[in-house]
Write a structure and sequence with these properties.
The chain contains nine helices and eight strands.
Length: 227
């Protein structure tokens, strides 16, 4: 039976150098004529839907499906060029770890991310790791990561055509929200202090394992695969 590993993207697998937020800022400034749109807006650990909800409410934008789609596509259109111009990178140990796990037939690699689905694939393609993932839960329709986690789990169940027993899935992320959404689907939580939250800030949220980064490939892999 395959073990299911759900990876967050930003701050866990890679850093875009701020390209995601920059692309959203450009979309809001150029398409919606909002200056300094992210002043006072927290983005770490949130879904793109949740960020859009706050932006639309804060600036009293016309909130229709058409305007939501215009915002999303304005952002996605600008994301590739922002990725090209800002200094992003895969985080320590990520390439080695993913290659090791990808070769293991007992592992199913999936995504659990706050990104819009197409935004997630744009980022992964830019860094050359998109082909390693088959399924995922994405943040385009839900403001709360717990709901994204539930969708991700159902997506994997449908893809594999079997149940995923409690405790056999694992969520790997860099924020307290990632730890919380692991608990919401009865998955193990592995936290990594490569994003906005330090090792000391993640510790009180009691992940099953906590790493400074993913560079100790063998140790991290053993932790991820403990059912």
């Amino acid at each position: 039976m395959q073990q299911i590993l759900f990876f967050d993207i930003d701050g866990t697998l890679l850093s875009t150098g701020g390209a995601g937020q920059r692309a959203m800022e450009l979309a809001l400034v150029e398409e919606f004529r909002i200056q300094f749109p992210f002043e006072g807006v927290l983005t770490a650990g949130r879904t793109d839907r949740g960020i859009a909800d706050e932006i639309f409410a804060r600036y009293a934008l016309v909130d229709t499906p058409q305007e939501r789609a215009r915002f999303m596509w304005s952002y996605l259109d600008r994301l590739p060029s922002c990725l090209q111009t800002l200094p992003g990178e895969l985080l320590p140990g990520v390439s080695e770890l993913l290659q090791l796990l990808h070769r293991d037939e007992t592992v199913h690699l999936s995504l659990l991310t706050g990104n819009y689905e197409e935004g997630a694939w744009i980022k992964l393609r830019h860094f050359g790791i998109d082909y390693l993932f088959e399924t995922g839960g994405f943040g385009g329709h839900h403001a709360h990561r717990n709901d994204v986690a539930r969708v991700a789990l159902e997506t994997v169940r449908g893809h594999l055509k079997r149940d995923v027993p409690n405790g056999t899935a694992c969520v790997i992320g860099d924020t307290p929200a990632d730890i919380q959404c692991a608990r919401a689907i009865n998955a193990r939580a592995v936290a990594v202090a490569t994003g906005m939250y330090s090792f000391a800030e993640l510790q009180p949220h009691h992940p099953d394992y906590l790493f400074l980064d993913l560079s100790d490939t063998a140790t991290v892999a053993r932790s991820l695969l403990q059912a």
